[in-house]
Amino acid sequence: MLKGWDSAALAISMGVVAEHPVPALLPGGSCPLPVLLVEDDENDVFFTQLAWNEASVFNPLWVCDDGDEAIKYLSGINEFADRENYPLPCALLTDLHTPNVDGFRLLEWMQVRPQFIDMPKFAFSANDDQNARNRVLALGATDYLIKPMSMPERTALVRNLARNWFPHAAPSHSAKASAIEHFSIK
């Protein structure tokens, strides 16, 4: 693990991600919608981005630190009101145990808003907890997933999610999304 390291800065210095999002353009010049990752652990963000790149996912991966930031993004509050630069995501990936507003409360918030009913929503946890699984599914999550511990498992999971749930996910192995945006509006 990279404890104590700024994962985003490390990734930029390694050339893994762009400092500012530059989503891959699809044929015809359209840009795929982002996927919103709600995760407070820098290491999980870093390794998810590495898996994202390895899986050649076209959709940019945008990151919020917690459910509160995600709600502001999804609601279009402050700078997020600019939907040209901050479009609604095509899918949500959320850790269940983030500070402030956790994944359960985020899913609860989304459940009562019709514009998010059809959005694929995936809840992640390090534990295989049947009660948590039942709760997130009752809150409208598409699935409850255990965080993969190895890079090959994480990459396979990202590839599977992209193939089955993200529009314009991975039409070829040669194109890679190199965009990560980490929102911090605290």
Q: CATH superfamily of the domain at 49-169, please?
A: Response regulator
> What is the CATH topology classification name of the domain at 49-169?
Rossmann fold
Q: What overall form do the CA principal axes indicate?
A: globular
CATH architecture of the domain at 49-169: 3-Layer(aba) Sandwich
Low-confidence stretches: 1-24, 169-180
Radius of gyration: 15 Å
In short:
The chain has 186 residues and is an alpha/beta fold. The chain has helices at 7-13, 42-54, 67-75, 103-111, 130-138, 151-165, and strands at 35-38, 61-64, 91-95, 121-125, 143-146, 180-183.
Could you give the topology of this structure?
Elements: H1 7-13, E1 35-38, H2 42-54, E2 61-64, H3 67-75, E3 91-95, H4 103-111, E4 121-125, H5 130-138, E5 143-146, H6 151-165, E6 180-183
Parallel strand pairs: 1-2, 1-3, 2-6, 3-4, 4-5
Helix pairs in contact: 2-6, 3-4
Kindly list the characteristics that best describe this protein.
186 residues; alpha/beta; Rossmann fold; 6-stranded parallel beta sheet; 6 helices; 6 strands; 33% helix; disordered N terminus
Structure description:
It is a single chain. The protein has 186 residues and is α/β, with parallel strands linked by helices. The chain has a domain at 49-169: Response regulator (Rossmann fold). It has 6 helices and 6 strands, in the order αβαβαβαβαβαβ. It has a 6-stranded parallel beta sheet with strand order 5-4-3-1-2-6, with helices on both faces. Helix 2 crosses helix 6 (151-165) and helix 3 (67-75) packs parallel to helix 4 (103-111). It is globular, with a radius of gyration of 15 Å. It starts with 6 loop residues before the first helix and ends with a strand.
